[in-house]
Amino acid sequence: MEQGVVIELAQRAILTVIYVAAPMLGLSLIVGLAISVFQATTQIQEQTLTFIPKILAVLGGIVIFGAWMLRVLIDFTQNIYLNINQYIR
Description:
mainly alpha; 0% strand; elongated
């Protein structure tokens, strides 16, 4: 397998991981920021307060974005399997 093909495949794999992870990370970031602002304004400094809302936000995001995430991963995998003859040369 040529070096260019390996680099292109690695780039597509990394971009696919970023696309799939971005909604969950974004939701977690927004909820964490909102909880931090709430903690700063109320002066409640409990470390465990952020875990449950973040978990619920990520689970909600999986419910909302799950079908899209699965479709992106399936398309990437099908593309690899359809072009396997180019990769094994």
